[in-house]
Amino acid sequence: MKFWELNSICRDQPKLLAKTLSRSCWRSLEVIYNDFSTYVGDQERTILDMEVPENLCIEVLEQHPGQVFLFEGVLRSYRFAPAEEALTYLDTFLQFGGSALEEILEKGSIEF
Fold first, then answer.
1. CA distance 88 to 61
2. Does the predicted model carry a pTM greater than 0.90?
3. Which residues span the domain enclosing 82?
């Protein structure tokens, strides 16, 4: 997952990402996170598009309370039908990838 995607996914839980990045093993990314708005303003693609380690994504997403919903090949950020399968953000990341999760949250739904 790209750094900007992880940041976007955690936009409603910024303290979760900040807390995780404050651990000593992620300090180099914490520095980037703390200056994120500068990198966005400058469109510093080497930083924004940097791939973050999968174990960081897992560590963050397993703590995130968000859910997405799967029904008939469509993933949604909201419940549409009672029979939809609820997936955690971590499950969605592991099954469909970080880009898919970010796109669901940005657009509301995606088809598979």
1. 8
2. yes
3. 67-111
